[in-house]
Amino acid sequence: MATQEEFFSGIPKIPYLQSAGPGDVMCFKHYNAEEVLMGRKMEDWLRFSVCYWHSFCGTGADLFGSPTLHRPWNEGAPMESAKKRLRAAFEFFTKLGVKYYTFHDRDMAPEGSTLEESNRNLSEITDLALQLQNQTGIKVLWVTCNLFAHPRYMNGAATNPDCHVLAYAGAQVKQGLDTAKKLGAENFVFWGGREGFLSFLNTDVAAELKHMANFFKMAVKYKEKIGLKCQFLIEPKPKEPCKHQYDYDAMSVIGFLKHYGLENDFKLNIEPNHTTLAGHSYEHDVVMASAFGMLGSVDANTGSPDLGWDTDQFPMDIRNTTLVMKTIVEQGGLQPGGLNFDAKVRRESTDLEDLFISHIGAMDSFARGLRNAVCMIEDGLLAGMVKERYSSYSHGIGKKVEEGSASLEEMEAFIKQNGEPKVTSGKQEKHECIFNHYI
User: Fold this and answer.
1) Do 230 and 144 contact (CB within 8 A), yes or no?
2) For the chain, what is the mean pLDDT?
3) In the chain, what is the greatest distance between 2 CA atoms, to the nearest angstrom?
4) Which of 14, 223, 233, 363 could lock 228 by a disulfide, CB 3.0 to 4.6 Å apart?
5) C-alpha of 79 from chain center
6) Which stretch of DSSP H or E encloses residue 269?
7) pLDDT band of 307, cuts 50, 70, 90
8) Phi and psi for 28 in degrees, rounded to 5?
């Protein structure tokens, strides 16, 4: 790939070295893109994506400290720096060997003083993005609009009590959808960072939810109008920055979509760090969304369970990646979604190579999780035990319950004939021991 300058000089394309030792961190030890598992290449099961905002816009600043990550592509005037940042990103994608990336509209190009200026900036930068995509074959996994950072959105975007603000958000999403079509994005994500409330006292919850549903319906209509062929995704999060956000968790979003007749137009983008903020286990929302046929994509990160905020760490826990990949393989994959690393290096990890090390480690963790899941599924032991546990629903009164044709009168008659049910062990510890065999 021809570039004006090399940002990661001295770092070659990351190789797969199965025999590498524990101190060899600039190579893949488990992620072998071409390896075939259950009839599909590893890269097609995993569909890795790098996020633009953390990896290339992040500065390491936090609430308690100034920036620590001084990147060469962040220097210069806003549009000049935006173009350098984009070239640096594509160099990184190419050397890492991923096929997808994700971005917010305001990550890609600086916001102007008017909507028209913002749109011109985005159009100019995405012209370059399209050029780089064509040169490298790298694609957009998904686009999203930043409807939470600007002061106009302090009271929400689609749920704002002022329709003027909602209209601005609609205009921004319109441009975002045009951008998604231009770049061939395979998905479009809605994350309601400010769609929630701090107090019931000044909030009409019913009105805000209705307005948000109508906002989504406008997006669906515009998507159809312009012939955009991508999957719409909603990303749940329970809190932060709002005290309570409407898209609390997977079940909250699924209930919302079904209530407003949007369940055929959207799936979910699950971020496990958000899931744990809702008080669930790491894999909970992935499993729940998949159970309803609503798992569309995963923001592959993790958090610190002992902290009450979103830390966006790279996923390195093999147990977690195995549980997630077991669900993904069982549903037949994530396509057109993928595993997007919505994660950032720690503010203390200041070297450019740390960007590579963190992504390599996370990709290896998911590769190990995939192999573990495939072994588990092919062996069939756990699946057989679960099937046996529910075997009473395969015949007799259980089959009628399964089919939805049983009545309470039949329940009563069955109990009168068969008496008290036997106590049956759930064998939880046995399942856990067997699961640990594959880790």
Assistant:
1) no
2) 97
3) 82
4) 223
5) 28
6) strand 266-270
7) confident
8) -85, 130
Question: Structure tokens of 321?
Answer: 């990646």
| Annotation says 104 is catalytic | yes
Q: Quick check: 94 and 50 in contact, CB under 8 A? A: no
Give one DSSP letter per residue of 104-149, joined into a string. EHHHHS---SSHHHHHHHHHHHHHHHHHHHHHH--EEEEEE---SS
Q: How open is the CA angle 342-345-350, to the nearest 5 degrees?
A: 150
CB 370 within 8 A of CB 323: no
Write down the pLDDT at residue 308.
85
Q: Which residue has the tokens 């592959």?
A: 300
Q: Which residues contact 389 (CB under 8 A, 6 or more apart)?
A: 424, 426, 427
From CA 60, how far away is CA 70, in angstroms rounded?
A: 9
User: In angstroms, rounded to a whole number, what is the distance separating the alpha carbons of residues 328 and 170?
Assistant: 33
Residues 6+ apart with CB under 8 A from 300: 272, 315, 324, 339, 340, 341, 342, 343, 362, 366
| Burial (Cβ within 10 Å: 0-12, 13-18, ≥19) of residue 261 | exposed
Q: Residue 341 and residue 50: Cα distance in Å, rounded?
A: 5
Query: Sorting pLDDT into bands at 50, 70 and 90, what band is 2?
Result: very low
pLDDT tens digits, residue range 15-73? 999 999 999 999 999 999 999 999 999 999 999 999 999 999 999 999 999 999 999 99
- pLDDT at residue 1, rounded to an integer: 42
User: Binning pLDDT at 50, 70 and 90, where does residue 10 land?
Assistant: very high
How many Cα atoms occupy the beta-carbon half-sphere of 398 within 13 Å? 7
Residues linked to residue 104 through DSSP beta bridges, in sequence order: 144
Backbone angles phi, psi at 102, to 5 degrees: -135, 155
* 127-166: b (≥16 Cβ within 10 Å) or e: ebbeebbeeeebebbbbbbbbbebeebebbbbbbeeeebb
**Residues whose CB is less than 8 angstroms from the CB of residue 124 and which lie 6 or more positions away in sequence, other chains included:** 79, 109
Catalytic-role residue among 30, 54, 104, 284: 104
Under 8 Å between Cβ of 272 and 282: yes
Report how far residue 96's alpha carbon sits from residue 112's, in angstroms, rounded to the nearest whole number.
32
